[in-house]
Design brief:
The complex is a heterotrimer.
Chain A: E1 2-7, H1 13-37, H2 42-51, H3 57-82, H4 90-101, H5 103-107, H6 116-142, H7 146-166, H8 200-217, H9 219-229, H10 231-236, H11 241-268, H12 279-289, H13 294-318, H14 322-344, E2 345-350, E3 357-361
Antiparallel strand pairs in A: 1-2, 2-3
Chain B: H1 2-17, E1 26-31, H2 41-56, E2 60-65, H3 72-83, E3 88-91, H4 97-106, E4 111-115, E5 124-129, H5 131-145, E6 150-155, H6 160-176, E7 181-186, H7 193-205, E8 210-213, H8 219-227, E9 230-235, E10 246-252, H9 255-266, E11 274-277, E12 284-286, H10 294-308, E13 318-319, E14 325-327, H11 335-339, E15 348-349
Parallel strand pairs in B: 1-2, 1-3, 3-4, 4-5, 5-11, 6-7, 6-8, 7-15, 8-9, 9-10
Antiparallel strand pairs in B: 10-12, 13-14
Chain C: H1 2-28, H2 36-54, H3 57-81, H4 86-105, E1 118-120, H5 130-134, E2 136-138, H6 139-157, H7 159-169, H8 171-176, H9 181-207, H10 219-229, H11 234-256, H12 263-283, H13 285-291
Antiparallel strand pairs in C: 1-2
Helix pairs in contact in C: 1-6, 1-9, 1-10, 1-11, 2-3, 2-4, 2-9, 2-10, 3-4, 3-9, 6-7, 6-11, 7-9, 10-11, 10-12, 11-12
The chains are: A mainly alpha, B alpha/beta, C mainly alpha.
């Protein structure tokens, strides 16, 4: 007997809702097994990992702080991926955007007034977009594979930041240590709440809403989806693949750059040799977990941030290794991907090739 | 009576931290930048934590977070410990400095200890070790043992601690061989075994027959072993990785300091201060001298004793790379000048990244 | 001196070469597996652990290959059977591999490893210069070269290679002709996993004989870049791997000479060089189009 996939006539709306729940359920089971293997109480582990962080305002705010850059970057990436542009260098765009956004407070610290923050964000967006333009132009001009060029540029951006922070942009009053000067209050994002949450969180939500509307209701959104699903049909409709590539990279670069600037301005208050714990890469996962849908990304960003905060919680309070958190993340993603298959497909059990189907597992 | 005291202390800790009740008198928490399995920097800090557990038994509970990146995650990790009832928090990487200060402001009753930084507060102390003392000794050994008169130095990042290490090594080597040459390679990483191995090979190919490193992996020593040259362990005793190649190792021993500071909190005698000690306090320990002739071992031990007695390797005459005088004959460099060092001594074959 | 540098380049290039040749076969079959890094690191840890427990380097290498294949089988199940997105599945494979390897490896930190012995090929190893460089290496280096020849031969001279390329170029026609697209791709993915595992074993048993977390340090990604760089041709993978290895090694030599160039600039050279070569190669459309598997990354579901 063998199992085959059969494409459903239309999306299964039941599975659309059920699939993430099944995936989370499977992840919980796997996590429990992992805790048991490492000699910890699985129930306590699950509670500390997935529930406790949601019960406390501090850790809730921290989840939002962590989710904000992920959601912003993933929103931009979703436009790329929907239109078949494989930008996996958001990490580099984040870093380069943060560099450009920090130009004012680092080089002209005395320029501190109401215009400082908006200008920083503008510079950050422009910087991120410019960095993303390199793989985009290489793709449209020379047909160069954007997965690899955008990835290579991640390392280059990181080394550039490293060079600047250790060299020309070093804090003159910092005893030669590798850090920039601390930003003035005018260059710091206003905080909301009693923790570290800044106005970057509502900004991310606004981006999600705007993007959701654009994708669903506008011609641009239609163009993005058509060009992703069927470039040939798109070109008959008069859409240009090259222009869309430029647009998608510019948008995702700009969002990553803004995220980088807000992270530096809101959380760090200065430039350091490394400013991102891999946000750009994690955002790729967020984009797919959210099924390339802005609202889905918002939820996925929150879930992934929870997995980080929860991973830290079990490490700090139960002495569980931090590798377990990354294994759980990997498994969660696998399960979500696997379960999502059943939105578009259903399983069919067949005896042998070309044999008659003996049973149909529809709407599990 | 004792138990009443104990519960009083526990109640205090509870009030201070506003968190769940604990059996121990104090919870000491550690934030590491690398995995505890790096067998270098973070590993040695964790050895210090284990020594605290062993020394105090049930009186002190410990916890740690590993691989916490410098940056936005650091502040959260530190604040988590402050919220979870840690009375004493060690943050063990330079990049944790500003997050530590920020969190310390919010939790005035929790005590913080930041390694390798320079900002203190009423509840934030700093600590570091005089690693350059050990570097002077291995420099002397290199000066004696090198046949080619050229050593290779695998460096991580041009921060003052690394630069002063290079200079101390060079001064030590020059004290026995004035014509000694030092080649420096920056790998831009604290920990990348492959890169460190490649750098070591490049240095050996360019004539270095002594390899030393300010990066954390054992790879350079393994290369030295394979190529039949010598080297020194870094942070921990790496003799098991290079039986014939390791001459000695500079061991970071945080255990005495951690035990002392935990004791101070338990006794209610903790103050914010800046600790910067080396061989004399056992914070920097030289691993057994191996693969060396007796006279070199004797010389190394003599220097070790001299440093332990209070002598500073950065004592003049010291000439900078550009020919200007850094310290006149017999003049000792100020602590601040060593802690913020951004120049090379004469003879280093490299341009300091600025 | 030159001989010694070349030796260093060979060690630096070998893991890239092996992982890339495996991925090349996977991509020729039309599948993009971005999980090379994850499979490689699992190979490194399992290879080290088994060699350490049994005292046999050979068993370590074999176990590493199996570990790489097991990881790739997971990936294959997802993208072939469940038709999940290949990019996302590959990335999650990497995350999973990095975490899992850390868990497995916790017991082996700070434990000295054993090194694969060098095999001196009789007579040939006596030749001056060429002998020490090419015929006094460990078995994995020879295996790497053998793989390149074998893959090149199978791909372009045998029926199996023809089928593999047909599946990668047009899975619908291949299916119509009666070939099992899924089976061919699954085998290719397994081969890619085996190579990645072997490359990982080379890291932990020969390059730097020890286990440390994250020790592959991005080499899996470089291997992916090399495949495109090589425009899916096996012998160009060799050129790419050696070029990348040489640039990496030479930046250290440039530094040791005391040239005073910012080290960050030198460190970024290999990446910039890769981009430059990618541009040069892809600008030649005729050549790229001939060799690019047309179905790369596209899911296949047989319609019945």
């Amino acid at each position: 007997m063998r199992i085959e996939l059969v494409k459903r006539k239309e999306h299964s709306s039941l599975m659309t809702l059920l699939s993430p729940l099944v995936a989370v359920g499977l992840t919980l089971v796997a996590a429990a097994i992992l805790f048991t293997i490492s000699g910890k109480d699985p129930l306590l582990g699950l509670y500390k990992f997935f529930i406790e962080p949601l019960t406390d305002t501090w850790s809730l705010q921290e989840i939002i702080v962590k989710a904000t850059p992920l959601v912003l970057i993933a929103c931009g990436l979703s436009v790329c991926y929907l239109s078949n542009n494989w930008n996996i260098g958001a990490e580099g765009q984040f870093v380069f955007g943060a560099l450009c956004g920090s130009f004012l407070p680092v080089i002209f610290p005395e320029f501190a007034n109401g215009a400082t923050l908006p200008m920083m964000l503008l510079f950050g967006a422009a910087g991120g977009a410019a960095w993303a333009m390199i793989p985009a132009l290489l793709k449209t001009r020379f047909n160069t594979n954007e997965i690899l060029t955008s990835l290579m540029l991640v390392y280059v951006a990181g080394l550039l930041l490293d060079y600047l922070v250790r060299g020309p942009w070093r804090d003159p009053g910092g005893y030669n240590f590798p850090e920039s000067r601390i930003f003035s209050d005018a260059a710091t994002l206003p905080v909301i709440g009693d923790g570290r949450m800044s106005i970057s969180a509502p900004i991310a939500v606004i981006v999600v809403i705007v993007l959701a509307v654009v994708l669903a209701k506008t011609l641009k959104g239609f163009e993005i989806r058509v060009m992703g699903e069927s470039p040939r049909a798109g070109s008959f409709a008069g859409f240009s693949a090259k222009r869309l590539t430029i647009f998608a990279f510019a948008l995702s670069g700009a969002l990553a750059g803004v995220a980088g600037t807000m992270e530096v301005s809101g959380s760090l208050n200065q430039l350091l040799p490394s400013i991102s714990p891999g946000y750009g890469f994690t955002a790729i996962i967020v984009a797919f977990l959210g099924r390339l849908n802005p609202v889905g990304i918002l939820i996925a960003g929150f879930v992934l941030a929870l997995s980080y905060i929860g991973g830290e919680a079990v490490q700090a309070s139960m002495g569980v290794s931090d590798k377990i958190a990354s294994v759980i993340q990997g498994l969660l993603l696998f399960f979500v991907l696997a379960c999502d298959t059943f939105i578009l497909y259903k399983l069919r059990f067949v005896k042998k090739r070309k044999a008659v189907a003996i049973g149909e597992a529809s709407h599990v | 009576m004792k138990s009443i005291l104990k519960s009083a202390v526990a109640a205090l800790a509870l009030a201070a931290a506003g968190s769940a009740a604990q059996a121990a008198d104090l919870k000491a928490c550690f934030v590491y930048v690398g995995p505890v399995g790096d067998f270098g920097w973070s590993y040695q800090h964790d050895q210090g934590r284990l020594a605290v557990e062993k020394h105090f038994g049930d009186r002190v509970e410990t916890a740690y977070l590993e691989s916490v990146p410098e940056g936005p995650d650091a502040e959260r990790a530190i604040e988590r410990f402050a919220r979870e009832g840690c009375g004493l928090i060690f943050t063990t990487s330079f990049g944790y400095m500003n997050p530590t200060i920020k969190v310390a402001k919010k939790f005035p009753d929790v005590k913080f200890e930041h390694a390798t930084g320079y900002k203190t507060a009423d509840n934030v102390a700093t600590y570091n070790s005089k690693f350059h003392e050990g570097r002077y000794i291995i420099g002397q050994i290199a000066g004696k043992q090198s046949k080619s008169g050229v050593a290779g130095y695998i460096a991580s990042f041009p921060i003052p601690e690394v630069v002063s290490g290079i200079n101390a090594f060079m001064l030590g080597a020059q004290s026995v061989n004035p014509d000694f040459k030092l080649k420096v390679v920056w790998v831009n990483s604290w920990f990348d075994p492959g890169k460190e191995a490649d750098a070591a090979k490049a240095l050996i190919d360019q004539g270095a027959d002594i390899i030393t490193q300010h990066t954390d992996s054992t790879a350079p020593l393994q290369v030295a072993q394979e190529r039949g040259v010598h080297g020194f362990g870094q942070a921990s005793d790496m003799i098991n990785f290079a039986k014939d190649a390791q001459l000695t190792a500079i061991i970071d021993d945080w255990a005495p300091y951690y035990i002392e500071r935990v004791q101070a909190v338990l006794d209610g005698k903790w103050h914010s201060e800046s600790t910067w000690q080396g061989i004399s306090h056992g914070h920097v320990v030289m691993a057994p001298y191996t693969n060396l002739p007796d006279d070199v071992v004797a010389m190394a031990k003599e220097t070790e004793a001299k440093i332990s007695g209070g002598w500073e390797p950065f004592t003049g005459p010291i000439t900078k790379q550009d020919g200007t005088e850094a310290a006149a004959d017999g003049v000792r460099l100020e602590d601040g000048a060593i802690l913020g060092m951004n120049w090379y001594v004469k003879g280093v074959d490299d341009k300091l990244p600025q | 001196m030159f001989e010694a540098v070349l030796l260093t380049v060979i060690t630096a290039a070998t893991p890239l070469l092996i992982a890339a040749i495996g991925e090349l076969v996977v991509e020729r079959s039309g599948v993009l597996n971005l999980g090379v890094e994850g499979m490689m690191i699992m190979g490194a840890v399992v290879g080290f652990a088994v060699a350490n427990q049994t005292g046999s380097g050979t068993l370590g290498v074999v176990a590493a290959i199996i570990a790489g294949m097991a990881m790739s089988a997971l990936f294959g199940f997802l993208v072939l059977v469940l038709v999940t997105n290949q990019v996302a599945s590959g990335l999650s494979l990497t995350i999973l591999g990095l975490g899992l390897s850390g868990m497995i490896g916790e017991a082996f930190i700070g434990v000295p490893g054993l090194r694969l012995p060098e095999l001196y090929i009789p007579v040939l190893s006596e030749i001056p210069f060429i002998g020490p460089v090419f015929f006094q290496q460990d078995a994995v280096v020879y295996l790497g070269f053998a793989l390149v020849f074998a893959v090149s031969y199978v791909l372009f001279k045998t029926r199996a290679g023809l089928v593999l390329r047909a599946v990668g170029d047009n899975h619908t026609s291949a299916h119509a002709l009666g070939y099992s697209v899924v089976r061919v791709r699954f085998l290719a993915i397994l081969f890619g996993g085996a190579c990645a595992g072997l490359a990982g074993a080379y890291m932990s048993l020969a390059y730097t004989p020890q286990w440390v977390e994250n020790m592959t340090a991005g080499r899996g990604w470089i291997a992916l870049a090399l495949v495109v760089f090589a425009s899916w041709l096996p012998f160009r993978v060799v050129a790419g791997a050696y070029l990348f290895g040489a640039v990496t090694v030479l930046t250290f030599h440039a530094q040791a000479q005391g040239l005073g160039i910012p080290s960050q600039f030198l460190s970024s050279l290999p990446y910039l060089a890769t981009i430059a070569v990618l541009v040069l190669i892809s600008a030649n459309r005729r050549l790229t189009l001939v060799n690019t598997p047309a179905c790369l990354g596209k899911p296949f579901v047989p319609d019945r």
